[in-house]
Amino acid sequence: MPDCIFCEVVSQNLSAAIVEESNHAIAFRDISPQAPTHVLVIPKKHISSLDKASEQDCQLLGELLLMANRVAVNQNLDSNYRIVINNGSKAGQSVFHIHLHVLGGRPMQWPPG
Question: Do 77 and 101 form a contact (C-beta atoms < 8 A)?
Fold first, then answer.
């Protein structure tokens, strides 16, 4: 997808601190971390937001969640982490390529925002 920064990471035209990669997804450190551990998990397929995902993306979405869990385990978050998906600009989505935020390493507050 033209002008998508995360597609640039997937195509390796833009470097990122990758922590895990599979055939369908990639996880890398957020360049503006909001917690001591802040990793983004994205599909290699461009899907602009969760509300644009289709039934055909069901398995891929599950793979993203499982990768997010592996990242949390590998980052030693000891089952104390938050996974966030922002959908739409009013919900805080700033990059329109679906992505999961894996946040941990500090106490989380509720409500989140």
Answer: no
